[in-house]
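Milestone 3.1: sequence recovery, worked example.
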């Protein structure tokens, strides 16, 4: 564990004492240089904690507030002003350049050499993090456990947000989810919240399929032993209305689209390495299928996280069923358990 110096907050930044941080597959991609984030650097983008200092222009939160840090977007471009922050053209630079927009570092090592920070807007695998004001949501009270709040920052917000904000199925709609991790199971819970009668989950791990049933899936498909596309078409009478790709596995991309009927819509949420491609049936697209993406589930943190907390209060979003906690010192074990599939959502505790 290294000691680094974190810069003081700029006028639009806040200093957060990190209390917990989830682990997401995007963190693994950053670690493995599958994302263009310069290393060495500090990862982590599902951080929650307490505001300890605020910049001179900050009005959204005060010292002592409990907050969720979320994705990086500028907050001032046309897309952000319209509320479509997932379309912010500045997100990629703010998330992956390792420095502020003006090129200045946020982290320095003991010799004064810059270290990459601000990973996906945070770098929250640390005792403290800097976050820009637009990129956080204030928790309404102290009753929400840190271990529940942390996954809302990305995984839960992405999966549930994609269903609630982008797909918006009707109760009579059929939804198939490929990948029963945090993103996929959150999509399942959102579809159940809407009242969808047919929710199919495709995965290869029996324990995850069992949990999917518990969380609202009407049908499950073990893709390790079954033709998933044929099974989905059989269950849905020819193909699903909506499909959600939540695994990030290249092999799941085309089957997720092929699971649809002729006018169905597929949303790709998984994040494979940069440059990954898939081949699709051209005529299937011409015939009326729609394929789209939605970073962070098309969510604006201050809006969507509020909705998710309301769902949890109503007993419709039991995030804790996905979580296993680890002391921060056990980071490597948490990473190994996530990669093996033993843990769905590892959450690091910074005590």
């Amino acid at each position: 564990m290294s000691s680094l110096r974190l810069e003081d907050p700029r006028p639009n930044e806040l200093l957060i004492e990190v209390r917990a941080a989830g682990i997401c597959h995007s963190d693994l991609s950053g670690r493995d240089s599958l994302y263009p984030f310069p290393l060495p650097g500090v990862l982590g983008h599902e951080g929650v904690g307490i505001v300890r200092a605020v910049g001179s222009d900050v009005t959204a939160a005060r010292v002592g507030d409990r907050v969720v840090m979320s994705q990086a977007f500028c907050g001032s471009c046309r897309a952000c002003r319209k509320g479509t922050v997932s379309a912010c053209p500045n997100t990629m630079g703010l998330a992956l350049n390792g420095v502020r927009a003006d090129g200045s570092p946020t982290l320095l090592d003991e010799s004064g050499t810059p270290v990459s920070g601000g990973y996906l807007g945070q770098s929250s695998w640390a005792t403290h993090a800097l976050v820009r004001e637009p990129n956080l949501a204030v928790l309404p009270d102290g009753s929400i456990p840190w271990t529940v709040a942390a996954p809302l920052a990305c995984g839960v917000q992405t999966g549930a947000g994609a269903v609630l904000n982008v797909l918006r199925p009707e109760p009579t709609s059929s939804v198939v989810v490929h990948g029963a991790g945090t993103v996929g199971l959150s999509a399942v819970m959102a579809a159940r919240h809407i009242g969808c009668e047919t929710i199919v989950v495709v995965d290869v791990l029996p324990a995850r399929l069992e949990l999917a049933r518990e969380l609202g899936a009407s049908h499950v498909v073990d893709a390790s032993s079954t033709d998933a596309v044929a099974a989905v078409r059989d269950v849905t009478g020819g193909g699903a209305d909506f499909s959600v790709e939540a695994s990030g596995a290249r092999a799941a991309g085309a089957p997720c689209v092929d699971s649809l009927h002729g006018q169905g819509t597929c949303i790709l949420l998984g994040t494979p390495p940069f440059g990954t491609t898939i081949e699709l049936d051209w005529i299937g697209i011409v015939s009326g299928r729609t394929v789209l993406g939605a970073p962070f589930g098309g969510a604006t943190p201050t809006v969507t996280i509020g909705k998710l907390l309301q769902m949890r209060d109503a007993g419709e979003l039991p995030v804790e069923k996905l979580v296993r906690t680890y002391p921060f010192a056990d980071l490597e074990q948490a990473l190994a358990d996530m990669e093996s599939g033993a843990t769905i959502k590892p959450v690091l505790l910074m005590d």
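Residues 159-296 form a domain with the Rossmann fold fold (CATH 3.40.50.720). The chain has twelve helices and 16 strands.
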